Amino acid sequence: MTTELTTDDALRGEVLLDEVVPARAPWSAVVAAGDTLTIVDLGGNQAVDFLVYDAHDTTLRYSAPDTIQAQDSIFLTTGSVLRDCEHGPLMTVTADDCGRHDTLGGACSKESNTLRYGHHTAAQHACAENFLAEGGRHGLGKRDLVSNINWYMNVPVDPDGALGIVDGISAPGLSVSLRAERDVLVVVSNCPQVNNPCNGFDPTAIRMVVTR
Amino acid sequence: MTSTGTITGTATTAGAKAHARAQEADHRGRVATMPTVPASAWPDPPQGVEPRDLVHAEVVAGGGYTHLVVARGTHVRLTDLAGDACAHVLAYRADRPWERLNVADTVKVQWQVYLTSGHLLLSDAGRVLASVVGDTSGRQDALYGTTTRARNEQRYGDGSPQGGSPAGRELFAVAAAKHGLARRDLPPSISFFQGVRIDAAGHPVFEGSAGAGRALTIRAEAPLILLVANTAHPLDPRPEFTSTPLEVVAWKGRAADESDPLWTATPEGRRAFANTVADLTARGIA
């Protein structure tokens, strides 16, 4: 636990939790209704794969389609409401230094890595591994994994429908803050991918701060 | 009330039985949205398909749903009969339904969000569930999923599965339950016949339908459970709930092998097919 806070407005208030998630590692926490989770991209251009569930009923989980149905963009930024699969609000983005975040690309997995890059990548760590390992600590399993948010990941869609993970637009120290609209369980994979630019080919640590 | 019902009455078991048994003949030719059983009796098989090879034939009402379990190699054709169907589709491996459609992997692995002939529907396990082998619509959406009860209540006043503007998720939930699956088994779905395009700034542009009679055919590359909900697209801007019948016809066929053009069309697809056939071979399915 560090006691040194940045001057970022997002980190004002009583600090309930302040943790650094090492590169490639999973993380999870329950964030109470009204509290704010701030995710700091310490090293810059670090994809943070993110799922969120109702802490009291995990069948209610983040839904990428419901989230983008309720706003006029496929990207997330300040004002975006993260919605569950029954269209209810889970969290709201209250501050965003980066500008836009991905809702389409989902998580990397050992299995999909074999399609995207070749079977030589099968031994590499991946976000689906982190989600399964960390989710399992909360009773979640494979059935509970759905299309996730990728904070700080840059995924444009071209006019012809081509989509791809391209060089990031984040930088060291940028942060995004999320207010819990009800008690939520957040499960994160600090993305270990090294075969595309989502982590600048160099996965780095992130900082997670919960304030009240 | 049919004439038969009036004559026999239903106050007795015998009368009720006669009334029930008269209904099939009374309604023959009068109901358009229904399954044809056996499918070989379907009057209009696709060109080149023998009636005996048909395994499913049905017209699903607007606001209705269907569900199929199909063998590897089965072709499933969806037809937007009147121009305002929207086929929301989920697919699961029939032999292990925790492996299911993953729309994020589908668009990411193939570097493409607009899916049409030649594209693959991928599972979360690096394998192919189905290939799109025909598409005369070109309108589809892999990003916006289906509708929810809460949002349809807001938009139309009702989103219940039994109501006049049923939400896709409610229809999926019922269909899934018939295969032992629950709401946590419903990931984001894909939809066909009502198009959405993404503009340069990331905003959605609803295109709607390409017109009546357009069809999409997928080929099962593994044994599948298919859930199909026919209900208005979540971005359909019309204030009135609009959903017209969807035809679903399926027939026996062959899955892709190494001689299929799709097998080698892309390196990602080649590895997906290789993973799929390796898995199915080990299980004695391919």
List the helices and strands and how they pair.
The complex is a heterodimer of chains A (212) and B (286).
Chain A lengths: L14 E7 L4 E6 L4 E6 L6 E7 L2 E5 L2 H6 L11 E3 L5 E8 L13 H7 L10 H10 L12 E3 L22 E7 L3 E7 L15 E6 L1
Antiparallel strand pairs in A: 1-11, 2-10, 3-9, 3-11, 4-5, 4-8, 4-10, 6-7, 7-9
Chain B lengths: L2 H6 L4 H15 L26 E7 L3 E7 L4 E6 L6 E7 L9 H7 L10 E3 L5 E8 L4 E2 L7 H8 L11 H10 L12 E3 L2 E4 L5 E5 L5 E7 L3 E7 L15 E6 L9 H5 L1 H16 L4
Antiparallel strand pairs in B: 1-13, 2-12, 3-11, 3-13, 4-8, 4-12, 5-6, 6-11, 7-8, 9-10
Query: Residue share in helices of chain B?
Result: 10-25%
Shape of chain B: globular
Roughly how many Å is the radius of gyration of chain B?
Answer: 20 Å
Total domain modules of chain B: 1
Question: How is the main sheet of chain A built?
Answer: 6 strands, antiparallel
Amino-to-carboxy terminus distance of chain A: 16 Å
Number of strands of chain B: 13
The helicity of chain A comes to: 10-25%
Question: What's the number of helices of chain A?
Answer: 3
Rg over C-alpha atoms of chain A, rounded to the nearest angstrom: 16 Å
Class by helix and strand content of chain B? alpha+beta
How would you describe this protein?
Chain A is mainly beta. Chain A has one domain. Chain A has helices spanning 64-69, 110-116, 127-136; strands at 15-21, 26-31, 36-41, 48-54, 57-61, 81-83, 89-96, 149-151, 174-180, 184-190, 206-211. In chain A, β6 (81-83) and β7 (89-96) form a beta hairpin. The longest helix of chain A is centred in the middle third of the chain and has 10 residues, at 127-136. The radius of gyration of chain A is 16 Å and the shape is globular. Chain A starts with 14 loop residues before the first strand and ends with a strand. The relative contact order of chain A is 0.33. Chain B is of the alpha+beta class. Chain B has one domain (54-282). Chain B contains seven helices and 13 strands. Chain B has helices at residues 3-8, 13-27, 103-109, 149-156, 168-177, 261-265, 267-282, and strands spanning 54-60, 64-70, 75-80, 87-93, 120-122, 128-135, 140-141, 190-192, 195-198, 204-208, 214-220, 224-230, 246-251. In chain B, the strands form three sheets. A six-stranded antiparallel sheet of chain B has the order 1-13-3-11-6-5. In chain B, β9 (195-198) and β10 form a beta hairpin. Chain B is globular. The relative contact order of chain B is 0.22. The model of chain B has no long low-confidence stretch (mean pLDDT 96). Classes of the chains: A mainly beta (212), B alpha+beta (286). Chains A and B meet through β5, α1 and α2 of A and α3, α4 and α7 of B.
